[in-house]
Specification:
56% of the residues lie in helices and 14% in strands. With 172 residues, it is an alpha/beta fold. The protein has one domain (5-171): Rossmann fold, CATH 3.40.50. The protein has a five-stranded parallel β-sheet with strand order 2-3-1-4-5, sandwiched between helices. The longest helix has 24 residues, at 46-69. It starts with a strand and ends with a helix. The relative contact order is 0.22.
């Protein structure tokens, strides 16, 4: 497999979908959002899948979709925040593309996700603490898998997409 794809990983609210669309346009590549693909295939939204199948059921679907998307070439793929949890997923991404970890401060992540009711893991009493807990577990995994680490705090999605495009182009 060639490393012709770009996988955007990071926590909820880091900007993966928004930046992914802009990056794909910038590099004239296709764009896929793994969560949207899962929803299209199941005919149900992610909160429903979590309710019916639990997190493990969702993670199974996520790995299956990632495996399929990784076989495409010239694709920017925005992934779900927890995709990094499985070693298999990290291997798939590393083998078939560049992995770009989009980071943001806790304050930014809380601000960006505060009005979004479609994030099952944040439907808790203290979403800020949940983000902190998730990041403490996932940040080392994101960093270990990443070819590039980009902070999105207080930056326009277009500027971030341009930076990633430059890094990927230089690395090819």
């Amino acid at each position: 497999m060639s490393r012709s794809n770009i996988f955007l990983v990071g926590p909820m609210g880091a900007g993966k979908s928004t930046i992914g669309r802009l990056l794909a346009s910038e590099l004239d590549l296709s764009f896929r959002d793994s969560d949207r693909v899962i929803e299209e295939r199941t005919g149900a939204d992610i909160p429903w899948i979590f309710d019916m199948e639990g997190e493990e059921g969702f993670r199974e679907r996520e790995t299956a979709v990632l495996t399929e998307l990784a076989t495409e070439t010239g694709v920017v793929i925005a992934t779900g925040g927890g995709i990094i949890l499985r070693e298999q997923n990290r291997s798939i991404m590393s083998a078939s593309g560049f992995v770009c970890y989009l980071t943001a401060s806790i304050d930014q992540l809380v601000e960006r996700t505060s009005r979004d009711k479609k994030r099952p893991l944040l439907q808790v009493e203290n979403p800020r603490q949940k983000i902190i807990d998730l990041l403490s577990l996932r940040d080392p995994l994101y960093r270990a898998a990443a070819d590039f680490i980009i902070n999105t705090d207080r930056r326009s999605p277009k500027a971030v997409a341009q930076e990633i495009a430059g890094l990927v182009t230089a690395a090819q």
